[in-house]
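Re: [ENG-882] Designed sequences occasionally contain unexpected residues at chain ends

Forwarding the minimal case from QA. Structure tokens:
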């Protein structure tokens, strides 16, 4: 005698299996909600606002270790290095990350930084590039 599965059983099994196949994941808020305004009214912090962006997007090539190999010697890691670079090349970093055609688009081989990350760096520069 063979067992026959009823449509109700099959639908129930499919519901259980589909619920097991879904997973929670996190997306960037800027991607999900691109029209949200960035909070640029606050005092930007080098350690809280700038370093996280640079460490994720720039240090792969422009860290102390990687710059001689991948970053053409340009070191952005560390406040003193970044500040010296910004003093010598005041517009190049922003033009690079804005990918506006006025400098080499960065990060190379990757997507453009989200608008809030770019705004955070731009505002930090305009606020005097404090080591805070």
């Amino acid at each position: 005698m063979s067992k026959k599965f009823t449509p109700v059983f099959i639908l129930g099994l499919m519901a259980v299996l589909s619920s097991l196949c879904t997973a929670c994941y996190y997306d960037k808020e800027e991607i999900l909600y691109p029209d949200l305004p960035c909070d640029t009214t606050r005092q930007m912090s080098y350690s809280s606002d700038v370093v996280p962006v640079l460490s994720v997007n720039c240090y792969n090539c422009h860290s102390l270790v990687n710059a001689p190999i991948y970053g053409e010697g340009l070191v952005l890691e560390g406040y003193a290095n970044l500040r010296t670079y910004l003093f010598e090349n005041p517009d190049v970093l922003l033009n690079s990350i804005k990918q506006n055609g006025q400098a080499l688009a960065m990060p190379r081989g990757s997507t453009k930084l989200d608008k809030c990350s770019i705004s955070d760096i731009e505002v930090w520069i305009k606020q005097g590039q404090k080591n805070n």
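QA comment: On inspection the terminal residues look reasonable. The radius of gyration is 23 Å. Proposing we downgrade this to a documentation issue.
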